């Protein structure tokens, strides 16, 4: 394997044994990054701490934590703890999440998400660098973290819009988008590079949902349809705004009662399926991922939730050849 590759699991993957085994297999195969998202099930940082004790080399990315779910101090403490127990392998992923999750689970108003992401990422970075916390309470004495500073711990931001990608350029060490077309990853990458300071070295980690082996098309389709139909309106709007509005409408019409594993993408929306997922035989998967390697510093292979273990193993092995 001559390109940096990572594997990512979504918040819908709740089989603890599969999560751990995926990380172990990825390390064995030479993957550089294992990413575990957080939504409404497992605490990503806690799960990654468990995985840290079972691995030696692979980097561990909380990909991503909501900027609304914890205070900057708690985010910094969690990242610093994972970094220490893993021997310096932690990457902190942050994003704006969605209004549905922020309000419906965390009971926090979802307003001005780009400002929230900037504020939280900036304050977390300061704490990890050994600086004192930012406090707004009159008379409060700002404190530092009681662990060694970790200025080398990267912060990667999930961002797709104009305002949030500007935050990446200003304060992040990495950019970790999802559901952007390959051309838009390339164009946004150039925008971030142009807006960032001259000495910035921002890692771009991106890739599509990937499934290899028999039945891969149906699995990839069900994953895409679930995100479009059942994950609030954010993903549907993001996909539609990139020129796939008719495909989004067709997918929604075809899935009046969507499920994570039995939703469909009709042929009229096949162009969107081909843009946001990669599926097929191992050879087809490797061929279709080649353009993504040119667009990203780290090719992130995103696995649909609920994949049988043999499909996970086939897919991970297919990517590395």
Keyword list:
single chain, alpha/beta, two-stranded parallel sheet, 12 helices
Task: Describe this structure as you would to a colleague.
This protein is an alpha/beta fold and 321 residues long. 47% of the residues lie in helices and 14% in strands. The protein has twelve helices and ten strands. It has helices at residues 16-29, 44-52, 72-85, 99-104, 113-128, 162-171, 182-195, 216-230, 234-254, 270-276, 282-295, 309-320, and strands at residues 5-9, 33-36, 59-66, 90-95, 155-157, 174-175, 203-206, 209-212, 277-280, 298-303. Strands 1-2-3-4-5-6-7-10 form an eight-stranded parallel β-barrel, surrounded by seven helices. Strands 8-9 form a two-stranded parallel ribbon. Helix 1 (16-29) packs parallel to helix 12. It is globular, with a radius of gyration of 19 Å. The N and C termini lie close together (8 Å).
């Amino acid at each position: 394997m001559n390109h940096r590759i990572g594997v990512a699991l979504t918040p819908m993957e709740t089989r603890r044994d599969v999560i751990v085994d995926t990380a172990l297999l990825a390390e064995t195969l030479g993957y550089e990054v294992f990413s575990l998202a957080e939504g409404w099930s497992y605490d990503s940082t806690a799960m990654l701490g468990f995985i840290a004790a079972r691995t030696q080399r692979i980097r561990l990315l909380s990909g991503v934590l909501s900027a609304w779910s914890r205070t900057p101090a708690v985010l910094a403490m969690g990242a610093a703890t994972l970094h220490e127990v893993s021997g310096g392998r932690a990457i902190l992923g942050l994003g704006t999440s969605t209004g549905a999750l922020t309000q419906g689970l965390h009971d926090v108003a979802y307003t001005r998400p780009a400002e929230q992401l900037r504020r939280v990422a900036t304050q977390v970075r300061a704490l990890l660098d050994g600086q004192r916390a930012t406090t707004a309470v009159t008379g409060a004495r700002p404190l530092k973290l009681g662990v060694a500073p970790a200025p080398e711990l990267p912060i990667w931001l999930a961002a797709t819009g104009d305002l949030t990608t500007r935050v990446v350029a200003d304060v992040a060490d990495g950019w970790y988008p999802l559901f952007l077309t390959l051309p838009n990853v390339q164009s946004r990458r150039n925008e971030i590079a142009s807006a960032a300071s001259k000495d910035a070295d921002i890692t771009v980690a991106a890739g599509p949902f990937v499934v290899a082996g028999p039945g891969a098309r149906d699995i990839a389709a069900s994953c895409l349809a679930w995100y479009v139909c059942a994950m609030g309106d954010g993903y549907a709007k993001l996909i539609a705004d990139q020129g796939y509005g008719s495909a989004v409408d067709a997918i929604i019409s075809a899935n009046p009662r969507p499920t994570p594993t039995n939703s469909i993408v009709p042929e009229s929306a096949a162009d969107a399926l081909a843009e946001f997922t990669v599926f097929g035989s191992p050879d087809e998967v490797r061929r279709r991922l080649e353009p993504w390697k040119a667009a990203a510093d780290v090719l992130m292979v995103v696995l649909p939730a609920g994949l049988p273990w043999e499909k996970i193993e086939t897919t991970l092995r297919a990517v590395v050849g």
